[in-house]
Amino acid sequence: MHWWPHFTGSGGWVMVFFWLLIVVGIVWVIAYFLRDQNWRGEKKEDPYEIARLRYSRGEIKKEELEEIIKNLNEQRKN
To answer: Can you tell me the distance from the alpha carbon of 29 to that of 34, in angstroms, rounded to the nearest whole number?
Structure first.
């Protein structure tokens, strides 16, 4: 009596290879979709913070900052 009767001959190895491909495919799909997620602790850039930093460096004027914030708020509502 065999411990695993369906694991004889080349058919058993084909089944192992098939399930290995399934597992690798699932891992690849999960990695593909999670790649864009913030799992590494990297901070995503906040457009409000970028505008404030540009203002503090003197790259833009106060009126431009207010316009940027107004536009961002309008985009957020839509």
So the answer is: 9
Alpha carbon separation from 59 to 33, 63, 71 (Å, rounded): 37, 12, 18
- Per residue in 6-49, pLDDT (tens digit) is 555 666 777 888 999 999 999 998 888 777 665 556 667 889 99
Fill in the amino acid letter for 36. Answer: D
Query: What is the 8-class DSSP label of residue 53?
Result: H
- What residue segments make up the domains of the chain, in order of their start? 1-42, 45-78
Q: Which of 69, 63, 65 is nearest to 55 (CA)?
A: 65
Which is nearest to 51 in space by CA: 64, 33, 36? Answer: 64
Backbone angles phi, psi at 26, to 5 degrees: -65, -45
Record the pTM: 0.45
Residue 68 pLDDT > 50: yes
Question: In the prediction, which pLDDT does 1 show?
Answer: 47
